[in-house]
Amino acid sequence: MTKRYRGYEAFRIVSEVSRIISSSLDLNKVGDLVLRESMKALDADHTSLFLLDESSSHLILTRAKGFSEDEMDNIKLLGSWEIINDQLVKKKKSLIVNDVHKNPIFKKKRVYFSKEKFPVNSFLAVPLAKDDKIIGALIVSNRNRPGHLFTKEDEKLLRALSNHIAIALLNAKLYQDLKNLFISTVKSLVKAVDAKDRYTSGHSERVMKYSLAIGKELGLDEETLEILKLSSLLHDVGKIGIKESILAKPAKLLGYERSQMNRHPAIGVGIVEGIENSHKIIRGILEHHERFDGKGYPNHLKGLAISLEGRIIAVADTFDALTTDRPYQKGYSKEEALLEIKKESFTQFDPKVIKAFLKSFSKHPDIWNT
Ligand SMILES: [Fe+2]
Fold it and tell me: Tens digits of per-residue pLDDT, 135-173?
């Protein structure tokens, strides 16, 4: 049965879908919403989203919904079909095909796959474009549903949706690129900090890796993991304000030197405070040397008064410090470091965090290879 959209109904669907897909800037989430909403709006069995790879000018399948894993491999082929590329990418037009297996164009092209392997009987494909530039294609398709054909009305609706979809995808991509740029800038900054002490090269990135492993084991959500990622990467950024003679001293620090060194969490906060939205990452930086028993620094916070990020980074930081060779001390093996840390549960560290650390250590030993 074909579907008819009256003017108002089509307008309602387009505004609703546009609202939903613009609700996130997470590229994966936007991609999933695009698939779900276009499938629902067109009452289709499956949808597939292709993005144009500019270097090869090929449509690459990025995600699809409604297909089994085996079928997905064959759906990828759609992006390389000449007719799709010619119609959508070159001519910037849509394409409706209502019986793939009988269609003369595809017959002539010797479509050699069976209905089982390629479960698409009919499909509607529209280009995704922004300012006349093709960025990809969206294809909604049906299995064999007798009488359920794609119409010009469907095409109009999907084309109207495609403009909003292209904008939502481009915004999310831009946001992702900016985030990547920010992270790589931060990584260069912490590399410069780590380089001040030749014995701590790569320390910050390893602490980030360990912190995220613990955070994932604790089941933290995406947003908290993102905060943990930045605060662990930047936890020692304040060392930029500590004299090299103290930082790289090849022996234990004396009283005055120790008190200078202990200023680095607060100096770090001073540095990141200038970054927009930095309030979320400040506590992880400030509190990574606090101890669960209240004997840490700089504020002698105790137990759960220490932020979760601070409690996690403390374990990750200690693991890396223990397993790194120092001029006055050979680094521990990872198993020795684990035992040392375990001993400090309840005193230096939060037992809940230690439990997650131990779990991650046995489940993903490769992450904890030093
Ligand atoms: Fe530190």
Answer: 999 999 998 877 788 999 999 999 999 989 999 999 999
Catalytic-residue membership of 363: no
Kindly report the length of the chain.
Answer: 370
171-175 LR contacts (CB < 8 Å, sep 24+): 171/22, 171/25, 172/24, 172/25, 172/26, 172/27, 172/29, 172/30, 172/31, 173/27, 175/25, 175/27
Which residue(s) pair with 127 in the sheet? 137
* 298 in Cβ contact with 289 (< 8 Å): yes
- Which listed residue (65, 117, 239, 359) is catalytic? 239
> Facing residues of 142 across strands?
122
Q: The tokens of 355 are what?
A: 């439990």
- C-alpha 289 – ligand 1 centre gap (Å): 6
Give tens-digit pLDDT for 180-200: 998 898 899 899 888 887 677
Helix (H, G, I), strand (E, B) or coil at 299: coil
Q: Is the pLDDT of residue 234 over 90?
A: yes
In the beta sheet, which residues pair with residue 141? 46, 123
84 CA to centre of ligand 1 in angstroms: 56
3-class DSSP assignment, residue 215:
helix
Query: Residue 14: which residues within 8 A CB-CB, separation 6 or more?
Result: 157, 160, 161, 164
Structure tokens at 176: 């992702």
Residues with CB under 5 A from ligand 1 (ion): 236
Alpha carbon of 265 to ligand 1 centroid (Å) = 7
Torsions phi, psi for 95 (to 5 deg): -145, 125
Give dist(CA 87, CA 131) in Å, integer.
18
CA 357 to centroid of ligand 1, rounded, Å: 19
Domains parsed from the chain with CATH numbers? 7-173 (3.30.450.40), 186-363 (1.10.3210.10)
